[in-house]
UniProtKB/TrEMBL annotation, chain A:
Pfam families: ThiF. Keywords: Acetylation, Ligase, Nucleus, Ubl conjugation pathway. This is Ubiquitin-like 1-activating enzyme E1A. It comes from the Eukaryota. Belongs to the ubiquitin-activating E1 family. Residues 14-308 form the THIF-type NAD/FAD binding fold domain. GO terms for biological process: protein sumoylation. Its main location: nucleus. GO terms for cellular component: cytoplasm; SUMO activating enzyme complex. It is found in: Nucleus. GO terms for molecular function: SUMO activating enzyme activity.
From TrEMBL, chain B:
It comes from the Eukaryota. Transmembrane segments: none annotated. Residues 42-51, 753-763, 775-785 have a biased composition (Basic and acidic residues). This is SUMO-activating enzyme subunit. PANTHER family: SUMO-ACTIVATING ENZYME SUBUNIT 2, UBIQUITIN-ACTIVATING ENZYME E1. Its main location: nucleus. It is found in: Nucleus. Keywords: ATP-binding, Metal-binding, Nucleotide-binding, Nucleus, Transferase, Ubl conjugation pathway, Zinc. Belongs to the ubiquitin-activating E1 family.
Amino acid sequence: MTGAELTEQETALYDRQIRVWGVDAQRRLSKSHVFVSGLKGTAVEFCKNIVLAGVGSLTLNDDNPVTEEALAANFLIPFDENMGGGGSLAELCCDSLKDFNPMVHVSVEKGDLSSFDVNFFEKFDVVVISCCSLAAKKSVNEKCRKLSKRVAFYTVDCRDSCGEIFVDLQKYAYAKEKADETVECLLQYPSYEEAIAIPWRSLPKRVSKLYFAMRVVERFEDVERRKPGETSISDLPNVLKLRNELCLAHSLNESQIPDSLLERLVVSTKEFPPISAVLGGILGQEVIKAISGKGDPLKNFFFFDSVDGKGLIEDISTP
Amino acid sequence: MTTIRPPPVVKLADGGTHTTDVTEASAKDHTKGWRRNNLLSSERERDDMSPERTPSVEWTTDQQFQTNSYYGSPTFRSMDRHELELRFKRPKSHTIRFRGKTKNESRDLLALFLQLSPIHPFSRLSHTQFIILQQSSSVSMASGQQLSSIKGAKVLMVGAGGIGCELLKTLALSGFEDIHIIDMDTIEVSNLNRQFLFRQSHVGQSKAKVARDAVLRFRPQISITPYHANVKDTNFNVDFFKQFSVVLNGLDNLDARRHVNRLCLAADVPLVESGTTGFLGQVTVHIKGRTECYECQPKPAPKTYPVCTITSTPSKFVHCIVWAKDLLFAKLFGDKNQDNDLNVRSNDTTTSSDHSEDIFELGPDEDIQQYANRIYDHVFGHNIQTALSNEETWKNRNKPRPIYVKDALSDESIQQNGNADVSNDSLSSLSAMAYLGLKNPQDIWSLKESSRVFFAALKLFFSKRQKEIGNLTFDKDDPLAVEFVTAAANIRAASFNIPLHSLFEAKGIAGNIVHAVATTNAIIAGLIVIEAIKVLQNDAKNCRMTYCLQHPSRKMLLMPVEPFEPNKSCYVCSETPLLLEVNTHRAKLRDLVEKVVTSKLGMSLPLITHGSSLLYEVGDDLEEDMVANYEANLEKVLSELPYAITGGTIITVEDLQQELVCNINIKHREEFDEEKEPDEMVLHGWTTPTPAVENNKDATDNNGASTSSTSKSAPNDMEDDDELSILETGIETIPAGGKKRKSSDVSTPETLIDEKRAKKIPEQPENDDDVIVMLDDRNDPVVTL
């Protein structure tokens, strides 16, 4: 099948969404290959969305065994007293996702994320990593950037009632439809490493406090060699100390990163299901935009905090 | 609100080590002062019971707890025999085991234990440490307080469609344990792209029931009660609604939304309302007396078109669709006795209108091909020809071109059509497209192809679906009906020099199909749960209406807005009387019931009284003579009713199910504008529909396309699902105009695309993290008396 035309089955199934993004976009979706690593609640929400949307293939990576905690936040895994009978998270999620949409090829890639080399990522159009260390984010992002084809790179993290999405589309040209005319737009994205290296002072004045708070926590986990989310209240004093150091170095007022916000992020590291649903939805939408070339992609950070209810886009890049 | 089950017996197995003193202050922190003593006494009473028979908590440590030190986050393990274990590393290693008869019981034990923290050094933990422990109890939730309000809540979901599937999943994951769900629909193939709880094999089954079963697979311990029924059924009355802590709507039509709004008001149950279309969505919270009700603000009305635009002067494709669907299709295959402007209007300038009665009757000696040719020539040829004779109409318009069969089809195709053997087995697929070898629904047919589809579809109806003729109404899921309407609309469009459209597009317009994607539904469902939890915690002051936008406004894709106070002149939640202008000497009671009470006021079981006398009511248990009496009243002119309704009369209209009562002041008025006020009645004081814009179903162009006002387009009433009720000659649209109040100060132009320009746009001064967007400039309803 060349995929030049959607089949009758596809047209019937995707009818409502073709009315949103058109046949061309649907065709591009069905030829795209997506890789997801780190299958907690938010990533699982994303996987569901992208499988329903009808991507060509989805490759899952997460060797962790099913735990009570993972089970609690995961609607893909049927309840089982035996905790999935020894299968990995990726394997169990794979079975359910296949069921959601028989037209999508869902598979599992075993192995540690850091073990995948540059060539591995060439198979994909989109790479999404979740619950990863700072080092892993940087390294996977760099690998994607080394390829001659563009691989869209995303990270998504949810802690307590907050969440963050990072997007790197490298050089992204698209046709923006504005009133009656179509305008060619070119976006230039920084890598993750470049983005977070930008001095805080030079960022726009009202950047979301969550951006800074997430950097502090991320840095803390990095220097303490913790796994993502492996923090507790006992870490708070040291996290606050690190905050002060970073603020001093960046000459940023400490009040920009309130204690209370850091406490929430450090103490409650579980993904709160409604927040996961929101983040997984936004990320799904962004990936669909990037694949289809339809719509304005977000550049380059998205933050959501259910305490104020805002879903904010921040552009963290050098002018 | 919060319900905590009576405590099971908790036995602290390793007595001597928990000697930390318990203070009132610490008790208050986490248990809200809840029966610490209760537990202690029950512990004493049951101390001698054996551990096998009694759920127990076992606590081992070799060190005295340091009451002021931090306890690191515990690791949580599920042990054999339903035991759960919390293991702490800091400050000293210790474990706590929870042993119930079942795993659920162990979980309950753990959750309860954590709530009873005063007897344990956990009481010294900070609030946030406490949260960790709560989360460890296998339910991912943000705080102990939330957990208990969620666990104790009884939730009613209305709708198990696009939003409903997402919502049910998120509720279950969030820890809700008692969910009731009403949905009258069954599953269709076009649902499967987003209603992820359903599979191909479920097509045709009840959405509510299948959704329940699907969620129970990953969350078997919770209770989900499905109702495969219409929410407007009388058993879902005020008492039924009263049992719920909160009602969550994921509906697809205005009518049901209004009905649920009224029941929630009557039962005094908070309502979280939602809707999505394409990438747009919204969640609003309605709490009686605190925030506006669903009907306090004008709702977009279904778009209606002036009759003459449809019958004589179409200028857009949608006009042709309305004509093909509501006039031609209805005339040919629907109830022939129904009033229909197809002939009346198109012939009213001239000649042979007496003949028109017979035009659509199949002659006794006529075969289907002859009949089809005659219909074709009449509606696309003769009628246009006739209309052309009225020069006045075409002064400022392009003249249409009459199309006859001989123009559209070459002789040989006519021949083919004539020879087509409609009883041939190859037609059994009942698709004109399949018969003609047309495959791609995205293709735009030529006039010739459209004409061939027209003939093929017409013949298929008459040969294969003879029995249904006379009773058919247009259904977007009836492929043959869609083919016929597409073909007829295209032929008409060709006649009026309007661009032709594909079957896919025509189906969307004719079927009022709303764009729908999974992502928006998932986001909206998440936001509904966030608001529902606030409502359950009695935290109404922090409730927000949230708009999900396609283009960011002030950097926001998700925009929270403070809810509005109730509209003091809302006839639904504030009992403000309405004013009806009507010609009391001409209008019948039936007109009043149909055009005002059921349609505008949305009442399904109305009761109309004038003073102490009953003029009309609807119900199952009425006496026969009463029914006859009401039937007779319906046909009477208002001023000639037993208790005459004249200018100055006040009538009372109520709906017993919705517990809604409205007083209507009657004002007599002699004349009405035929085009602008076709009902010959004007109702003031109800939330007048905002003028809907012309249909614009173009995906990329949709909502927020006008870059100057992204959020303005956040629709006021959106559809979650496929269908919505359509007015007789209307296409419902998403109002690009939306509410005025939203456009007032959130019209930041799109800044992301053009970075140079973005730099120039100054940040708005009030755009502080802690300030939420406040909008004003509300639309007031038409002034009442």
